[in-house]
Amino acid sequence: MAIKTATDATFEDVVLHNDKPVVVDFWAAWCGPCKLVAPEMEKISAKYDGKVDVVKVDVDANPGLSRAFNILSIPTIAFFAPGKQPMGVVGFRPMEQLEAQFGLPAYATAPAPASAGTSKEDASSSAA
User: Fold this and answer.
1) 125 assigned to some structural domain
2) What average pLDDT does the segment 108-123 reach?
3) Which residues are catalytic?
4) pLDDT tens-digit readout, 62-93
5) CA distances to 50, 69, 76, 93 from 34, in Å
């Protein structure tokens, strides 16, 4: 799954109303450590495809979100789990540290949210 982008206008729908957990990378183009975080976000997106969404927010283009979440230093990586308070870390962290900090492995085995797709019956009839 591709990494999504959220803005001041779309954050509520993309992150806060998401039925899946979301890792949010608050970053800026001029930020050196932010460039180190980008590949880690790609790894998380690939590993947790369909289970956890990864979203990037450019703090320079979206000052409302920076104010709303009190983003004073970047990169800030935040984790939004449905029905829970968000949590975050400041600075570069490798994927393994982010997984541990946010408890992501628990979501790797969790069933994916219900969506329109093939059922077992559909899969078995196509295998015949």
Assistant:
1) no
2) 50
3) 31, 34
4) 999 999 999 999 999 999 999 899 999 999 99
5) 24, 18, 9, 10
